[in-house]
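Regression test case RT-17, inverse folding.

Input:
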């Protein structure tokens, strides 16, 4: 499961930071998960809960910001909303849309003890 390995990498990142910044608990983690990132948020939450059992991040609250997907249409020559990276332009129906936003997967903020 893709989301479980993401959750495990997140935990590794938190453990590394805990050593650097000398904290022992993560109370809250804020993530940015773009609409086009391909990450299932329910699966990520579940994976995170599972991966963090018995660790410094057990029970941490997870807030997720979901930037909407967008892309550049070469036909309309403008940025258009994009719900799916393989979807065509909602205005002209042509498929020449290059995703430009909503692909993020990153930690934005940590609240630690
Ligand atoms: Zn278009």
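Golden output:
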């Amino acid at each position: 499961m893709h989301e479980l390995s993401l959750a495990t990498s997140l935990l590794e990142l938190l453990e590394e930071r805990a050593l650097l910044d000398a904290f022992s608990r993560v109370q809250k983690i804020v993530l940015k998960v773009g609409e086009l990132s391909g990450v299932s948020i329910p699966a990520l939450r579940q994976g995170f809960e599972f991966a963090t059992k018995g660790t410094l991040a057990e029970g941490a609250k997870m807030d997720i910001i979901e930037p909407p997907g967008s892309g550049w249409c070469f036909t309309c020559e403008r940025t258009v909303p994009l719900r799916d990276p393989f979807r065509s332009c909602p205005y002209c129906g042509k498929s020449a849309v290059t995703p430009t936003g909503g692909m993020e997967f990153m930690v934005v903020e940590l609240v630690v003890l």
